[in-house]
């Protein structure tokens, strides 16, 4: 069916909307959180530096008009102190975005007000004020927040330029500032795009490190990282945690009979079947080869055995068409639960591995619960 391509204005509108929300919901939220964390760190350094800059600019006031410098310095100090909570107000539950806007509004506002009190001050201060705009565009590139932060000092500047300056210099200030502002907004948008791209690249690398590219299970490194965290939580709060180790039965035979590509498909199908039978808080990782581990936080022995059995049955029910034939395979599982004797990740893995070994020894395609006392490491 022929689909009509969007009209030029509609495409332009979509492109513009894309500029504001180009990432899918969850990713955009993660990107926002990352930007906010960066701004919070920057505010700790840039906040006092900006404050010091605004106050030290009082020396320039004295150079231009010694008589008014005492008043302007007082205004500078007062407005910098008013904005100072924004430097590090994390404890007040004041988000980095509003803090950045408040910091800019008060500090740039101090520059504007003091410059307006000096003869030709706004003209002379213009480079500093536009410089601050571009610096903000790099620190807070989100357009809405950029506009929110720059609006109060910009309106103040426009008002004071109209009221205080002769028509010639006033127009000069207004013109230059209103040319700089959209330019700074463009810098903000370009910065935002670059940072979004960097964020996406970082996510792709993280994803590659955290997942097994073939089966879609978590990587050994990441599953260990998550499990160590969940284990520490379980031990601290006296909660249960279980893990199930799963291994495909006679996988070498599967590969030899059906080919390596069919073996790969079996691995993927097995992981999918297991995921369908795990809770959202559980996760499965590939330890290596055809060996997988499922971590089940807040799960006792009974529930873990039931879950492992469900996964085993789901795998046994799989039918993979290979040419004109159908590939069927099974898994064996060993389950271990957190206990005083098995409280470490390595101990739990050892216990589950010993139970898995028992499942294999007693005929395969079955689930065995580990004895509570940690058994010795399996040889080989
Ligand atoms: N297709 C495929 N095969 C793999 C992969 N990783 C490991 N294998 C194969 O998995 C097989 C594991 O064989 P074994 O360790 O002897 O175990 P098994 O044949 O499953 O026997 P039991 O575990 O005792 O039931 C080997 O033939 C490996 O080549 C993979 O990513 N894809």
Automatic annotation (TrEMBL):
One Pfam family hit: GGDEF
Chemical reaction(s) catalysed: 2 GTP = 3',3'-c-di-GMP + 2 diphosphate
Domain GGDEF, chain residue ranges per copy: 239-372
Keywords, alphabetical: Membrane, Nucleotidyltransferase, Transferase, Transmembrane, Transmembrane helix
Assigned EC number: 2.7.7.65
Transmembrane segments: 39-60, 72-90, 110-139, 146-166, 172-192
InterPro entries, alphabetized: Diguanylate_Cyclase, GGDEF_dom, MASE8, Nucleotide_cyclase, Rev_trsase/Diguanyl_cyclase
Keyword Nucleotidyltransferase: yes
Gene Ontology molecular functions: diguanylate cyclase activity
CDD domains per UniProt: GGDEF
SMART domains: GGDEF
Gene3D superfamilies named among the record's database cross-references: 3.30.70.270
Record-linked PANTHER family: DIGUANYLATE CYCLASE DGCM-RELATED, REGULATORY COMPONENTS OF SENSORY TRANSDUCTION SYSTEM
Entry protein name: diguanylate cyclase
């Amino acid at each position: 069916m022929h689909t009509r391509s969007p009209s030029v204005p509609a495409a332009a509108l979509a492109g513009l909307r894309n500029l504001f929300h180009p990432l899918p919901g969850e990713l955009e939220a993660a990107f926002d959180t990352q930007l906010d964390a960066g701004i919070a760190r920057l505010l700790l350094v840039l906040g006092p530096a900006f404050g010091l800059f605004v106050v030290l600019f009082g020396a320039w006031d004295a150079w231009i008009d010694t008589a008014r410098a005492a008043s302007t310095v007082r205004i500078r100090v007062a407005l910098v102190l008013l904005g100072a909570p924004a430097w590090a107000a994390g404890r007040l539950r004041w988000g980095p975005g509003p803090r950045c806007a408040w910091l800019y509004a008060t500090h740039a506002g101090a520059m504007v007000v003091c410059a307006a009190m000096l003869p030709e001050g706004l003209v002379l201060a213009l480079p500093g004020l536009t410089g601050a705009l571009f610096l903000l565009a790099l620190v807070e590139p989100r357009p809405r927040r950029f506009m929110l932060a720059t609006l109060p000092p910009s309106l103040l500047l426009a008002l004071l330029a109209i009221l205080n300056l002769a028509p010639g210099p006033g127009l000069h200030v207004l013109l230059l500032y209103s040319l700089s502002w959209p330019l700074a907004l463009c810098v903000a948008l370009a910065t935002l795009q670059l940072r979004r791209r960097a964020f996406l690249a970082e996510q792709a690398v993280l994803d590659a490190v955290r997942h097994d590219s073939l089966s879609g299970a978590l990587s050994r490194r990441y599953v260990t990282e998550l499990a160590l965290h969940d284990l520490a939580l379980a031990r601290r709060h006296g909660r249960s945690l279980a893990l199930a180790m799963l291994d495909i039965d006679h996988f070498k035979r599967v590969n030899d009979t059906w080919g390596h590509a069919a073996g790969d498909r079996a691995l993927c199908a097995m992981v999918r079947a297991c995921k369908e039978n795990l809770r959202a808080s559980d996760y499965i990782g590939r330890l290596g080869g055809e060996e997988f581990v499922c971590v089940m936080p807040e799960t006792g022995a009974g529930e873990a055995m039931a879950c492992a059995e469900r996964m085993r049955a789901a795998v046994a029910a799989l039918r993979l068409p290979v040419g004109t034939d159908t590939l069927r395979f099974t898994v064996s599982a060993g389950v271990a639960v957190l206990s005083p004797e098995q409280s470490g990740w390595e101990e739990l893995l050892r216990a589950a591995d010993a139970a898995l070994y028992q499942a294999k020894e007693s005929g395969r395609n079955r689930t065995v619960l580990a004895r509570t006392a940690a058994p010795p490491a399996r040889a080989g």
